[in-house]
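Lab notebook, bench 4. The sequencing result for the construct came back, and we need a structural model before the next group meeting so we can plan mutations. Quick request posted to the team channel:

Model the 3D structure of this chain.
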Amino acid sequence: HDMRTVLRRRAPDLPVFIYPTLVQGSAATAQIVSAIMLANRRAEVDVLIVGRGGGSLEDLWCFNEEAVARAIHGSAIPVVSAVGHEVDVTISDFAADLRAPTPSAAAELVAPDRSARAQRLVHLRQRLTQAMNRHQTAARHGFALLQKRLDHQDPKRRLEQQSQRLDELDRRLQQHLRDRLHQGERRLAGLAMRLQARSPEKRLAIGKRRHQLAEERLHALIAKRQDLARHSLAMLGARLDGISPLATLGRGYAIVRTPTGEVISRAAQVNVGQPLVTTLAEGQLRVRVEEVHNP
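Done. Here's the predicted structure in token form:
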């Protein structure tokens, strides 16, 4: 009764199992040994209190018996000996894992104090909250860094830069062709003036022929330069298509992200059962991980 009162006060949620047995008299020894063996067979408790209240030396004598001492010593469950009052000493006290001065003291030893457990829970909750806050802060910081890197290496931005570069090359090419055309026109004008300065018909005919040939060569040169420029522009366009993410997707590749947008590049980033979003050349797939194979 005293032990159960202490246990209810200190740890009301602690389950208690009682193995009834005589604690004095000639039949007590065998019953105590049987109770200890029964507790070990059931293996339903974490600690076993073997004891009784105070009494005379004859009343406590069963706890001096060799069979009881061997049963306590051989118990796989830790045993607390709580026999009699503080001044009472039995062989069971030496065979047990721990001796308590009284049965009530034994109950206090095995039952954690409710207020101490509550304080421990508060402390653990505070540590958990702090750890979660640190983890969230680190995650936000990492996300910000990844977002900054993603913005800096955005494929759309790189595509715009390449497009601007192509526009600049096209503008320079057109300006170069116009300059060469103007040079040719000025040269033709000079030849015409020289031709007009020489009036004989033969020279005039020769001049006209030269003028025609020069004009044909100029147009052929311009056409050739234009063909080269178009070919160069086509090659640049093909190179741009080759580094385009859309072209990569068109070849059968895909971009795998979490539902929050995080890009998955390693199998270790995901867990079995985790939902993912797969972006294809045309459309998206929402999938769920069934297996993870790490390298």
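The CA atoms of residues 19 and 35 lie 6 Å apart.
Will bring this to the meeting.
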